[in-house]
Write a structure and sequence with these properties.
The protein is mainly alpha-helical and about 260 residues long.
Length: about 260
């Protein structure tokens, strides 16, 4: 029975649809002389639903109520991630074993230098030099000849530029050959077997230039004139060669030499 402001326990269960069963549950326990609070606890205990059958014997599977009464722990999946204490990534396989998934370090490709397996000989060193780019081989040959004959490298550069403009296979109308334009007879006297070989040509030309400098007491203009027109021509004209071609050649080499800071 209710009034305007209060609801009794009977009214609550009646509105909840349990009015017909309330009396049956209340009759399960005898009235007690204890306090009202204890009676209310007993009343609620008497309203507990009847025990449900075991989930194992249930022919239709597990209901939601059975699941909450008997929770089942979920099994780990095959690729369940875990975080070991060392911080590396791992997984668990079907047997529950921890398997590291840390990527294997890549092994750098090992390259073997074939030249390191071959004994170094003068011949192999020569072949290696010939495999270099022409510009690099020319530069190395110039510096080697400059050190060998005590001739400024810039001066050798200037003579090559004026004679052939760095063309190893250049041939003049008079028959001069190679970078430093050696005449065949002069190349033979200098021991040059192949005037078109970059190393031999530069070595022979630098050696001949050294001879001209020594012959004319270090006079660069007369030495260059002798390199172009021959030492006999320079002596014949007492160092003042009248040929315009020779004079232009000397002026050109000297101008190039200043560019190479000679």
């Amino acid at each position: 029975m209710t009034n305007d402001t209060h609801m009794t326990i009977h009214d609550y269960f009646k509105r909840a649809g349990m009015g017909s069963d309330m009396g049956r549950h209340l009759r399960k326990r005898p009235a007690s002389n204890s306090g009202d609070g204890d009676d209310f606890v007993r009343l609620l205990e008497g309203l507990q639903p009847p025990p449900q059958p075991s989930i194992i014997s249930s022919p239709i599977g597990m209901g939601i109520r059975d699941y909450w009464k008997h929770p089942v722990a979920a099994k780990p999946t095959i690729r369940e991630q875990s975080a070991p204490s060392n911080g590396t990534a791992s997984t668990r396989n079907t047997f529950g074993q921890t398997v590291s998934t840390e990527p294997k370090p890549s092994i750098p490709e090992t390259r073997v230098d074939a030249s390191a397996l071959t004994p170094s000989t003068p011949e192999t060193q020569k072949n290696t030099q010939r495999e270099m780019m022409p510009d690099e081989l020319i530069s190395d040959s110039i510096h080697a000849a400059a050190d060998k004959y005590n001739v400024p490298a810039g001066l050798i550069h200037s003579v090559i530029r004026a004679e052939s403009n760095f063309q190893p296979d250049a041939v003049s109308r008079a028959g001069a050959q190679g970078l430093m334009q050696l005449m065949p007879a002069t190349a033979e006297e200098l021991g040059v077997e192949d005037a078109f070989d970059i190393e031999q040509n530069i070595d022979g030309g630098a050696r001949y230039l050294r001879q001209m400098l020594d012959m004319f007491d270090g006079n660069l203009k007369q030495a260059l004139a002798a390199y172009n027109a021959g030492p006999g021509t320079v002596r014949r004209y007492n160092g003042n060669v009248p040929y315009q071609e020779t004079r232009n050649y000397v002026s050109k080499v000297l101008a190039f030499s200043r560019q190479y800071a000679v």
